[in-house]
Amino acid sequence: MKILAFETSCDDTSIALFEDDVLIAMDTASQIKIHEQTWWVVPEIAAREHANNIFKVLDNVLKTSKQSFSSIDYIAVTMTPWLMPSLLTWITVARTISISLNIPLIEINHIESHIFSNYIERKEKDITYPLVCLTVSGGHNEIYYMKNMFDFNKVWWTQDDSAGEAFDKVAKMMWLWYPGGPIISELAEKYKEKPPTPPLYSRVPSLQHTAGFTLSRGQELSSNLFPRSWLQKDELNFSFSGVKSSVKREVDKRIEKSGELTLEDKQEIAYEFQEAVTEVLATKLVNATEKYNTKTVMLAWWVSANDRLKEYIEKLIIWKNIKFIYPIKKIYSMDNAAMVGINAYYKIIKNIL
Fold first, then answer.
1. For the whole model, what pTM was predicted?
2. Do residues 25 and 61 lie in contact, with contact meaning Cβ atoms separated by under 8 Å?
């Protein structure tokens, strides 16, 4: 069974070809260089670039896999949600191929497919349920409770900005490029390598009191340049507008004092900001396992590529006998057609169409 999958929900033109649950070819054309000029994705520009890239990417996938249209059994395409101009470009192409070849078209939900990115290069038995899954992107920030592969409910979400949006906007405040996540993490790592390191256990009492959470032994804590948005005690919803505003005030203060924002300033702010966000994300995800009595946590979407977030989660669960699942390769954390194809595969074999 061969599945040709399309993903163009935002600014990446991606096509993948699967044979059953095995990815045999994928090609993705990025638009990052174009959207750097506007610091954000402009829907009309993204749609035009999809139209320019679509057939080149498709040709690359077919040539790499040494397959032709005649070997395709199913077409899978992202239908919702995200940028409608981008989606319409590929929905039109996918439907045209489906009708022309007289093969089934499988409609895929974008958020669900990001969760399914954890199945790429894994087997079904590798993921045990029930579990809680944290999804984080530029527009989404939720925790899902999953009873099984296709039975999941959104139980907690952001009250304002998502963590991914905060990363992008903080990068823009410091005149860095889009997207913000990778460059913020890179600057934070540079700062982390410099002595002195933040003090250990400097925030245990406040964290225990505010988050209702007992820290594991050996956990490192960051300093308090920026606030942690815990909301109410035991609250598992998110809020990142406050920390974003705190960064803006700190940037303005340093510029007013010295007339510029130095590389050292950017590294320190990036580090402290990333610590403030990842500490909240990790703690609330692990707290959710206690609320829902699960022994598996999962990450999905763009921020699942953040190494500091994964490091933080691993330290929180080390004494708790909790299994931690995240996409095997960082490319699967981004928008990609492989996640669409693997989602379609499981829909087909489980007859959920």
1. 0.85
2. yes
The structural domains of the chain, ordered by start, are: 2-119+333-349 (3.30.420.40), 128-327 (3.30.420.40)
Tell me how far apart the alpha carbons of residues 139 and 167 are, in angstroms, rounded to a whole number. Answer: 11
Helix, strand, or coil (residue 166): helix
CA distance 211 to 204: 10
Residue-level pLDDT, tens digit, the chain, 353 residues: 999 999 876 667 889 999 999 999 999 876 566 656 666 666 666 666 766 777 788 888 999 999 998 899 999 988 776 656 666 676 777 888 889 899 999 999 989 999 999 999 999 999 999 999 999 887 789 999 999 999 999 999 999 989 999 998 999 999 887 778 889 999 999 998 765 544 433 333 333 333 333 333 233 444 689 999 898 877 899 999 999 999 999 999 999 999 999 999 999 999 999 999 999 999 999 999 999 999 999 999 888 899 999 999 999 999 898 999 999 999 999 889 999 999 999 999 999 87
156-159 long-range contacts, CB within 8 A, separation 24+:
156/236, 156/237, 156/238, 156/284, 156/288, 157/237, 157/238, 158/237, 158/238, 158/239, 158/240, 159/231, 159/237, 159/238, 159/239
Give the phi and the psi of residue 297 in degrees, each rounded to 5. -120, 150
